[in-house]
Write a structure and sequence with these properties.
The chain is mainly α. The chain contains twelve helices and no strands. The longest helix has 17 residues.
Length: 209
Amino acid sequence: AVNLLPASATWPSSQQAALHARLSELYGVEDPDRSGKHAILAVRLDPATGRQLVAAEYQVRIGEKRRAIETIESMPAGQWNTWNLRTAVELMLQAGDTRAAHRLVSARDGVELDQSTRLSLARALLAAGDDAAGRSLLNDPTGQEAAGGDDGDYKDVVALRALVALQRDYGSAIEAVAAYSDLRTAGAIGDPFGWYRLSLALERIPAGW
């Protein structure tokens, strides 16, 4: 495919974009810099190639954070799913733009965001002083995934622990105790050494046993 680059200069932009997208895929993890550079060219020529996240990851790494945000925002609406929404939010947080990440999630309310990433975004917003946006992500803080289930999936426990820490740091005592109560429903794996209970006690929040 690399041999086609010289001749591709006369191709229609959509075909040039497809070539750069293919090269980005081929380089992949073996040469992330080249993959990122070709991804940037691909999405500039044709956003429909869907290489925005690869391009944005490279832009964040080289310090072009504002361009990374713009690249992510150029992804066609029909290409969003749970996996790439999570990746996009993580990249935006790495770029230091919590508001852009929140806008992205709010504009795609039909796409589910995993609870771990939702809580990470909420914490970042609250830390930045954007209380309204941060709290809006906690209206249904545990959701189907974080509420756990009969299988006691570990990732659910991680999300519940994150919620306890978040409510401890930014919520009320009542909210922190409620979050800890949810964590205890996970059983012994929830807080096996009592660290989260102790962290609440240090903040003078009585979580009980």
